Amino acid sequence: MNDPTPTVPPFGVVLTTLPDEAGAEALARQIVDAGLGACAQLQPIRSVYRWKGETCAEPEWRLVIKTRADRYPALEAFIRARHPYALPQIVMLPITAGAPDYLQWVAEGSAGAE
C-alpha cells in the first residue's frame, strides 16, 4: 500500500533579493558564518514587480542559499531580522536529487555554527 504522506526533500535552495551588492554579500557571509547555509551565491538581476499599485523595475542582487530543509525556519527568521525590505522574498525550492558527496557537504555546512 502506498503511503499518502508527502515526503519533504531534506535539502533546498532558499532565494532572497537585496537592493545592492554590499548588502547581499554581508547577508551571505552572516548566513554562512551562522551555519544556516553551506553556500550563498550572489547574482545581479533586474526585477519587474508590482508594489503598492505601481509597476517597478529595479536592479537587485539575488542570493541562492544551499541548506537543509529543516534549517528553513531559522534561516527565514534570520533573513527577516536583517533584511532592508518591508516584504522580502524568502522562498525555498526543494532539491530533489544531487550528488551524494555534494549534499553531504551541504548537510555539514548548514548544521549550525561551530
What radius of gyration results from the CA coordinates? Answer: 16 Å
CATH architecture: 2-Layer Sandwich
Report strand %.
35-45%
Tell me the number of helical segments per DSSP (H or I, 4 or more residues long): 3
Order of helices and strands: EHEEHEH
In what order do the strands lie side by side in the largest sheet? 2-3-1-4
Distance between the termini: 43 Å
pLDDT average, as an integer?
93
Structural class: alpha+beta
Largest sheet, in brief, is: 4 strands, antiparallel
Shape: globular
Keywords:
4 strands; 114 residues; alpha+beta; 3 helices; Alpha-Beta Plaits
3D structure, described in words:
With 114 residues, the chain is α+β, with helices and mostly antiparallel strands. It has a single domain (11-109), classed as Alpha-Beta Plaits (2-Layer Sandwich). The chain has helices spanning 21-33, 72-82, 100-109, and strands at 11-18, 39-51, 54-68, 91-95. β2 (39-51) and β3 (54-68) form a beta hairpin. The protein is globular and about 45 Å long.
Layout: helices, strands, pairs:
Elements: E1 11-18, H1 21-33, E2 39-51, E3 54-68, H2 72-82, E4 91-95, H3 100-109
Antiparallel strand pairs: 1-3, 1-4, 2-3
Summarize the structure.
The chain is an alpha+beta fold.
